[in-house]
Amino acid sequence: MTSSPPVLEVKGLRTEFHMGRSRLCAVNDVSFSIGRGEVMGLVGESGSGKSVTGYSIMGLVDPPGHIVDGTIRLHGKDLRGLPERQMNAIRGDRVSIIFQDPMTALHPTLRIGQQMIDAIRAHRSVSRSEAWRRSRDMLGRVGIPSPGERLSAYPHQLSGGMRQRVCIAIALLNDPDLIIADEPTTGLDVTIQAQILAEMQALVAARGTALIWVTHDLAVVANIADSVAVMYAGSIVERGPTDVVLRRPSSPYTVGLLNSVPSRNQGASRLSQIPGTYTPAVSEEAVGCRFAPRCPRADDACTVFPALTAAATGAPGHEVRCHHPYAAREGRLSHV
Amino acid sequence: MKSVVRRYFANRATLGVAILLVCVGAAVFAPFLANQNPYDLAQLNIMDSGLPPGSEGWDGHYYWLGTDEQGRDLLSAILYGLRVSLFVALASTACALVVGVSVGLFAAYRGGAFDALLMRVVDLQLSFPSILIALILLAAFGPGLDKVVLAITASQWAYFARTIRSSAQAERSREYIQAAQVLRYSSLRIMIVHLLPNSVAELGVVVAVEMASAVALEATLSFLGIGLPITQPSLGLLIANGFSFMLVNKYWISVFPGLVLMAVLISFNMIGEHLRKINEPGYAA
Amino acid sequence: MGWFIARRLGQFLLLLFVMSLVVFVALFALGNPVLNFINPSSPPDVVRQAIHNLGLDQPAYIQYFRFLSGIAHGDLGNSYTSGRPALRLILERLPATLELSLGAMLIATLVGIPLGLGAGYRPNSLVGRFVEGFSLLSVSLPTFWIGLMLIIVFAIETGIFPAGGRGPTTDLLGMKVSFTSLEGLRHLFLPALNLSLFPMALAMRLTRASVEESLRMNFVRYARAKGLPPRRILSVYVLKNVLPSLVTVMGMVLGGLLAFSVITESIFAWPGTGKLVIDAIQISDRPVIIAYLLFTVFIFSTINLLVDIVCAVLDPRISLRGAAS
Description:
The structure holds 3 protein chains of 3 kinds.
Chain A: E1 8-19, E2 22-34, E3 39-43, H1 50-58, E4 65-74, E5 77-78, H2 84-90, E6 95-98, H3 102-105, H4 112-121, H5 128-141, H6 147-150, H7 160-172, E7 178-182, H8 190-207, E8 210-215, H9 218-224, E9 227-232, E10 235-241, H10 242-247, H11 252-259, E11 308-310, E12 319-321
Parallel strand pairs in A: 3-8, 3-9, 6-7, 7-8
Antiparallel strand pairs in A: 1-2, 1-4, 4-5, 9-10, 10-12, 11-12
Chain B: H1 2-10, H2 12-28, H3 30-33, E1 55-56, E2 62-63, H4 74-110, H5 112-127, H6 130-141, H7 145-172, H8 175-182, H9 187-223, H10 235-246, H11 252-279
Antiparallel strand pairs in B: 1-2
Helix pairs in contact in B: 2-4, 2-11, 4-5, 4-7, 4-9, 4-10, 4-11, 5-7, 6-7, 7-9, 8-9, 9-10, 9-11, 10-11
Chain C: H1 2-28, H2 44-53, H3 60-72, H4 86-121, H5 126-140, H6 143-157, E1 170-172, E2 175-177, H7 182-215, H8 218-225, H9 230-267, H10 273-282, H11 286-314, H12 316-324
Antiparallel strand pairs in C: 1-2
Helix pairs in contact in C: 1-11, 4-5, 4-7, 4-9, 4-11, 5-7, 6-7, 7-9, 8-9, 9-10, 9-11, 10-11, 11-12
C-alpha cells in the first residue's frame, strides 16, 4: 500500500493464556503492517482477541498470558524479547495506547497535570514547568477549554468525553510513531464520538502518526480507516483496503457482520443476525476454521484451519482466511 | 519417612487439628495424666521448690518440666491450667456465638431502621480495641471466672453478629426465603430453619479465630492480674507467676506454660485460616 | 468538606456522651468501694461519714450530674488512695504512654509498610514469604508473651537492653521524655518494639493486600503503558491508592495502642497510664478508673476523627460522597 517501510510489522503473532492445565489461545497467527500516517481498523466482537493484540504490541500482556510466537517489528526492530527496561523506554514514547475506559485508566487521586507530566518526564529530561506547559498546550489541542485549570483537576471532576480527550492528549504527548486506540469512543454520546473521531483523524494526519483503531463498530472504521483487519476468535479472517473490504467482503463472517449493521440494512425488513453463539475462549486443541459452526458455507473442508490467501477481488492487500470465500460479485451486498 | 510426614502435614489445618486434639485431650484427662493435683496444698512439697526441668524431687518424684516456687510440678500445673484456659475460651465463645447470631439474624431478618441501628452499634464496638472493652467491664465487676467470660463475650459478640448478618442478608433475598414468607411460616421458623443453616459456613471461620482470641485475651487479662482469681490458675496466670522468677534465671516457670499457650493459639489460627480458604469462592480441594 | 467535618464532629460528641454514661453506669454497678479503703470493723458512723464525704450516699442520677459538671470543669474526682485529682494523675503519666505508643507506631510504619509493599509487589519473593509467616505468628502470639521472650533474649541472656523501667528523662516542652538520650532510647526500644508488633503485622498485611489489589487496577496498566519506571509506579501510583485505607487503619490502631499499652507497660514496668489503671483496678480506685477510661475513649475518638479528616484530604472523592449522601 505504501512504498515507505512500515512503522509496525506484526508477523505470526500468537498469544496464549495458561489457565491451570488448559491453554487458551487469544491471538492466533495475526499478521499485518501499518505505514506512516496510516489508519488501520481492527474489528471484531468482544473477546475476538483485538484488544489482546494491542496489549501484545505494547508488551502489556501479564501472566497468565504469554506471547508464544511471532514477531512485532517497530521500524524493523523486534519488540518481542526486548528487555523490560528498553520496552519501557518505547512504551508511551514511540508507541502509546488509549484505553477503552478513561475513568479506570486515569489514576483517581492524582491530578490530571501530574499524570501528564509523569508521562512526559518518563521519556524527556525536561523541567516540571516545561512539562506542565507542554501538557497544557496538548490539552488545548485536543479541544479542552481552559486547559490550564483542567490540569489541576481530578479525573472525577471531568465529564466522560473530557476524560477521554485527556487520554488522547496523553497518547499524543511524546509525539509517538504509533497510537493504539482500544475502543476509545465506546460509552460516549454519538455526537461526542463523532467529534473525537474527527479530531483524532486530523491530529494523526498532521503528524504522520500511524493509528490502529480497535473497535467493534464498522461504521467508525468506514469513517476513519484506510485499511481494515477483521478478527474472529483470535485470527484475522479478512483484511484489505477499507472500501474494498466493506463493499466487496469476501469472508462469510465479514458479510454476516456487515448485514447486522443497522445503517447498512435499511432496505431489509429485519436486521439479520449471525446464527449461533460466539465462544470467545478458544482452547489450544481446537482445529479447523473457528467460524465453521456458524457459517452458512461450511463443509468438510472447513475442518482444516484455513490460511490467509488473496481474495477474488484482486485488490492489493485484500486477503481472506476461508476455504469458501465469496467471489467478487456474489459477496457484494445487494443494497449497497 | 520425612516426606510422608511432610505430605501429611502439608495441610496446615491437619497439623492444627492434631495439636488441638492433643491439647483438648490433655485438658480433659488432666486429673488422670497429672501426677499431682497442683492445687491440693497437701500434695506439694516445699523442699522441691524452684527445681529445673528434669530434676528428681525430694521423695524420688521426677519433675519433667521442673517445679515452681511452691514446689508445684509444672507439668501438672500446665495440664490443669490448660483445662481452665480452654474452658473459659469455650464458654465465652459459645456465649458470644449465641448472642451474636441472635442479634445478627434478627437484624438481617427485620431489616430497616432496626437493622441500621443494631449494625451501627456493632460497628462502633468493632472499632474499639477488645482489651478496652474488657477493661471497662472487669473494672466494673471485678475479677472472677464468670466475669472474665462475660467480658470476653462482650468484646466478641459483634464479630459474630456482623458475619451472620452479612451472609444472612445475602440469603434473605433468595427465592426460597420469599417463598417461605408467602407460605406464612412464622418469622422465627424461617430464620432458624432456613437462614441459619445457609449462613453457617462463614461462622466456622469466626469460631476458630475467636477461640484463639478468647484464649489470648483471657491469658492477657489473667497475666495483668485482673482476670481469673489465683485459685483458678489458667495458663496466663502461670506465666504471670513465673514472671518474677525469670529475672533470677528460673525461666521455665513462665516459658513452658507460654509454649503450650502458643501451640493452642497457633492451632486455632491454622484451622481458621484453612476454613477461610475453603469458603473462598473458586476453592478447589 | 466543611459539612463533612461538622457531621463527623457531631458523631464524635454524641459518642463521648454515650461513653460517659456507659462508663458511669458500669462503675455504679461496682457497689460500694468504701469498704476497700477503711477498716470493715470501723464503727458504722465512721463508715457513713466516709461514704458521705465521697458523695456516695446521693442518688445515682445526682452523682451522674455531679460527675458531668465535674467533667465540664476538667474535674474527674480525686483518687481514693492518694487523694490527688484523678485527671492530674493521668496527665502526669500520659507523656510516657504517648512516647511509647508513638515509638511503636514509628517502628511499625517504618518496617511494616515497606515490607508490605515488597510482599504485594512480588508475593513469591523472600519478603512475601516472610510477611506471610510473620502475620500468622503475630495473630497467634499474645503481646505479653512476646514481651517476656524479648526480656529473656535481649535483657536477661544478652543484656543488650534493660529489662524494664523508663531510664533517664529530660524535659521537653514541659513533658518528661526519654528519647533524647541514648540511655533513654535503650529503655524505650524493647517496650516500643513489643507494642509495635501488632500494628506492624497489620500494616504489612494491609499494605500487601491493597498493593495486590492496586496492581490489578487499570490505572497501573495505564501507568505502565505510559512507560513510567516501576519504582515510580509503585511509590506514587500504587502507594497513593493504598495510602487512604492505610492511614485509616493505622490511625485507628494508634488509638488502640493507647489501650494496648496497658500490657506492655505492665511487663516492662513502664510508668505510663496503662500501669496506673491496672493498679487502680486492682484496688478499685474508682475515680482513677473512670478518668482513665473516659480519657482513653476521648483520645481514641479524637484520633479517629482526625483520621477521617486526613483521609478526606488524601482522597478528594470522600468528602464529595459524604456531602452527596
